[in-house]
Amino acid sequence: MPRARLSVNVDHVATLRQARGVDYPDPVEAAAIAEAAGAEGITIHIRVDRRHIQERDVRVMRERVAGKLNLEMSTAEEMVDIALETRPHQVTLVPERAEEVTTEGGLDLTTQMDRIREVAQRLAAGGIATSLFIDPDPEHVRILAAEDRSMLPGFEINTDAYTRVSGAEQDGELERVREAALQGADAGLLVYAGHGLTTANVGPISAIEPIEELNIGHSIVSRAVLVGLHAAVGEILEHMYPGT
Ligand code: PXP
To answer: Is residue 55 among the annotated active site residues?
Structure first.
């Protein structure tokens, strides 16, 4: 059975850095650790308000990330310029609202396809593949399936709704993700998924065969803080009392 690749989103390493306005922790270093641990790609979201990832991070990661660099961004003109200048392997277009804490939902392809197509065309001319972040809704997959594959080869299914419920409701949301994945794969699209995935809920999603890649960030960085704290306290103690 083919296994889904993991792309680790390191945005929240940059969130910690920006909280202090210093130069650590460096998301570039985090990306290298994630790749060494088995991630096959790195995902970063450069937001218009630059709350975490900065242009420098995109530039340096483009040079240092060994696997696939996936840049999430809105369709704002400024972002298209950054992508064309830095040339990540893939851009994932996402909706972005200034007030949101994190990406809140998928793109509305029923109203935004013209702008998305224009951006994807320019990115394709720059050698960059475009993926679209969409909710597991057959209407959106159908609209995307009618587009030119050389420009829009794939999409990322928003798993957020699945991660927010439990029991029978979660089974229903899982089914929506599965159906969107099958519909996309049948249409010849590459299928990715992500948002809100944790060790507790990722299993049924990674078992959906057409899903080639999962983008996971917040839960991994959150866990890293806890599993790394023991070592970090030990290190500071060693520097407080050197040689003891
Ligand atoms: N996919 C997309 C399109 C996202 O915007 C995000 C969050 O930046 C993720 C995946 C990762 O979500 P999480 O941080 O909840 O794992």
So the answer is: no
Classified as helix, coil or strand, 194 is: strand
**Low-confidence residues in the chain, pLDDT < 50:** none
Buried b (16+ CB within 10 A) or exposed e, 178-206: bbbbebbbebebbbbbbbbbeeebbeebb
The residues near 87 (Cβ < 8 Å, ≥ 6 apart) are 62, 126, 127, 128
The SS3 assignment for 59 reads: helix
What's the whole-number average pLDDT of the chain? 96
Q: Which residues of 10-29 are buried (b: 16+ CB within 10 A; e: fewer)?
A: bbbbbbbbeeeeeeebebbe
Instruction: Given the residues 12, 52, 140, 195, select the one marked as catalytic.
Output: 195
Residue type at position 46:
I
- For the entire predicted model, the pTM comes to 0.96
Which tokens is 166 given? 């439990």
Which entry of 12, 45, 52, 140 is annotated as an active-site residue?
45
12 is catalytic: no
Amino acid at 193: A
Query: Any idea what DSSP says for residue 127?
Result: T
| Residue whose CB lies within 8 A of the most ligand 1 atoms, among 16, 213, 215, for a mutation test | 215
